[in-house]
Amino acid sequence: MKTKLLMVLMLCFGALTAWGQRIVTEGTVIAANTNEPLIGATVYVKGTTSGTVTNVDGGFSIAADQGATLVFSCLGFKTIELPANGYKDMVVKMEEDIQLLETIVVVGYGVTKKTDVTGSAVRANLKDFEKVANTNVMQSLQGTVPGLNVGQVTSAGGSPSIQIRGKNTISGSTDVLIVLDGIIYTGDLASINPADIESIDVLKDASATAVYGAQAANGVLLITSKKGQQGKARITFSSSYSIQT
After folding, report:
1. Whether the Cβ atoms of residue 194 and residue 223 lie closer than 8 Å to each other
2. Rounded distance, CA 159 to CA 103, Å?
3. Can you tell me the distance from the alpha carbon of 5 to that of 50, in angstroms, rounded to the nearest whole number?
4. CATH 2.60.40.1120 domain residues, the chain
5. Which of 32, 70, 117, 205 has the most CB atoms in a 10 Å sphere around its CB?
6. Which is higher by pLDDT, 140 or 23?
7. 52 pairs with which residues across the strands?
8. 190 three-state secondary structure
9. pLDDT grade for 17, boundaries at 50, 70 and 90
10. Which residue did the predictor score with more confidence, 40 or 129?
11. Beta bridge partner(s), residue 170
């Protein structure tokens, strides 16, 4: 009887010791280039199914065994592996994955990989902007996106007509919906500086109406503007002129 009781006590002591070796690591996940918190980044213990996601402030809290490895991943950023150290103010800086960013597109409800998009979505090649001396965003897009037709500007400061895959109706409006940084843009396209644009994604088919309604029946242009980045200040100057006859 004493032997059995001793074995039970030893097992209980071993379980308590093993539980006591688990540590809780807390911290914040931020983008390395902007120092802004990353919302919805995945944090999990390598080799297990134990994990969590960061909150609206980029914060996380996860329990793991001593010596375990924490894996941090987020769409568009390089995956990081760090030891579970039990810190309460851990700061994880994630760097952008340039190669991965080239394979994702902006859709109406966020960003996703091109291979996961069921609708027709195309990202414009902004490198072509530098080759064309246009002050109008849409004129710079002419010929860079299949199925996107941009008309000619007939007057200084005017905006060209835009059609995606031709006319969808015989007599209805063929205007394309413009969304700038997640907000429907009703202003003049000529007022948008091409140098301020980070990316342009074109949604071509009817799947865009599931997000923006009937006004997106003729396609959607999703324009994302550039944001400030951490680092040394840089000044870039460019100018052009034209003569209209």
Report:
1. no
2. 30
3. 34
4. 21-94
5. 70
6. 23
7. 43
8. helix
9. very low
10. 40
11. none
Rounded CA gap, 150 and 51, in Å?
48
Q: Which of 61-65, 66-70, 75-79, 162-166 has the lowest mean pLDDT?
A: 162-166
Positive or negative, the CA dihedral 140, 164, 150, 226 is: negative
State the Cα–Cα distance between residues 184 and 147, nearest whole angstrom: 22
pLDDT exceeds cutoff 60 at 8: no
Instruction: List beta partners, residue 180.
Output: 183, 223
Q: Where are the alpha helices (DSSP H) in 29-133?
A: 98-101
Q: Which whole-number Å values give the CA distances from 4 to 10, 13, 17, 34, in the listed order?
A: 10, 14, 20, 61
User: At which residue do the structure tokens 């994630």 appear?
Assistant: 94
Distance, in Å, from the CA atom of 95 to the CA atom of 111, rounded to the nearest integer, reads 17
pLDDT at residue 90 is higher than 50 = yes
pLDDT recorded at residue 189: 74
User: Is the domain 121-225 a CATH 3.40.50.1700 member?
Assistant: no
Q: Please tell me the predicted confidence (pLDDT) of residue 25.
A: 93
DSSP-derived letter for residue 6 is H
Task: Tell me if the domain spanning 21-94 has CATH number 2.60.40.1120.
Answer: yes
> Which residue type is seen at 75?
L
Question: Could you tell me if 176 and 218 are in contact, meaning their C-beta atoms sit under 8 angstroms apart?
Answer: yes
DSSP 8: H
User: How far, in Å, CA of 9 to CA of 178, rounded?
Assistant: 70
